[in-house]
Every structure is written in C-alpha cells, then in structure tokens.
UniProtKB/TrEMBL annotation:
Single GO MF annotation: transcription cis-regulatory region binding
Originating species: Micromonospora saelicesensis
Domain of life according to the entry: Bacteria
The name this protein goes by in its record: Transcriptional regulator, TetR family
Residue ranges of every copy of the HTH tetR-type domain listed in the record: 8-68
DNA-binding region as annotated in the record: 31-50
Keyword annotations: DNA-binding
Signal peptide: none
Pfam families assigned: TetR_C_35, TetR_N
Keyword Heme: no
DNA-binding in keyword set: yes
Length: 198
C-alpha cells in the first residue's frame, strides 16, 4: 500500500514529464496541459496532484536534488574500495551532468537572474545539495578509511565539493582532465585525513 504522502506512480510520472519538457524547452515554456499530455493524464489530475504550476516546480526541484545526490552516491559505491576510481566517477558524473542538464547546473551553480521562473525553486536548494553531496563523500570515505579524523574528513569532502562546483561555474579544461586532477586531489585529502595527527 502506498503511503499517502509518499510519491505515487502518477505523481512521479507527472514530475518526470515536467522534467523532460523543462530540459527541452525551459520552464517558462512548460504548460500544465503539455505536462498532462506527456504524462498521459488529464490536466485536472496535474492540478489535483500539485495545486498549481508553482507546486509542480517545487516537486520538480525536490526530485532533481534527490535524483542528483542518488546518482553521486551510486557513482561512489560502484567502485568498491577503489577510492580514486570512486572519486573520479562521482566528479566526472557531476561535471558532465551539469554541462548537459540546465536544472542541475542551476542548482549547483546557484544561477541567478534571467527570466526562468523555476530558478528560485532550484537555487534555494544549492546549500542542501552541497551538504548532501559532502555527506555522501564523508559516508563513503569513512567506510573505506576507518579511523580517519572526522573533522579532517568533513573538511576534505567540503573542499572537494566546492572545487567541483567552481569548475562547473567557470570550466577551464575538458571534463576528463578536470575530473582526473580533482580525483587525484581527493585521494591526497582523504589520505591526509586518514593519517594520525603528528
């Protein structure tokens, strides 16, 4: 039985349809009727589920954060105990996703300005994403570096996340090159956190 407050297939389908239309055309061009058609439901169903376009924007932004952080965690975990490979996969995924997906880029870069009505919903989640991404790194590194200094680990994770974001805002090199350099740095920072203080 589906919980009343949890996601339902109908809500998920509507949000997915809104996401696809937003990536393709921008939120300003998205109409509730088009979302309903893409989701295979009536326009009234969209309004019943979300109340308004603003309600749908809120749900879309929340879902995008969850999707992004989940993908970062999956990239980290896919490489087992290979810290460098996990770091590279997560960093490369983040850089390439931000380059291809305007929703993710808006969240991570805290893009402001412009006329897109969705931006306020996305940018207010920037700190949440940074915190959750850092948390994913801390959890993952902590599993592979038992006994690491937790404060140093937290600082290393926060530093890596903020450096990744800086390369999203002002990219200088190809994604692979940037991901390689940042993964190497991640290994050094995590290794330093794992060493006992002198």
């Amino acid at each position: 039985m589906i919980e009343q407050r949890g996601p339902t297939p109908v809500r998920t389908g509507i949000v997915d349809a809104a996401r696809a239309l937003t990536v393709a055309t921008g939120w300003d061009g998205v109409r509730m009727g088009a979302v309903a058609n893409a989701a295979g439901v009536s326009r009234q169903t969209v309004y019943n589920e979300f109340g308004s376009k603003a309600g749908l924007a809120e749900a879309l932004a929340r879902a995008e954060v969850d999707r992004f952080v989940g993908a970062v965690r999956a990239a980290l975990l896919a490489h087992g105990t290979d810290v460098r490979a996990g770091a590279y996969a997560a960093i490369a995924h983040t850089l390439s996703t931000a380059a291809q997906n305007p929703l993710v880029k808006a969240i991570l870069a805290s893009a402001r300005g412009g006329s897109d009505e969705l931006l306020p919903y996305l940018t207010t989640r920037a700190e949440v994403v940074l915190t959750e991404a850092s948390g994913a790194l801390i959890d993952w590194a902590g599993d592979h570096l038992p006994g690491a200094d937790q404060a140093a680990l937290a600082f290393a994770a926060d530093t890596i996340v903020r450096l990744v974001v800086s390369h999203i805002v002002l990219p200088r090199e190809p994604i692979e090159q940037t991901a390689t350099a940042l993964a190497d740095l991640a290994v050094r920072l995590f290794s330093a956190a794992a060493r006992p203080a002198l």
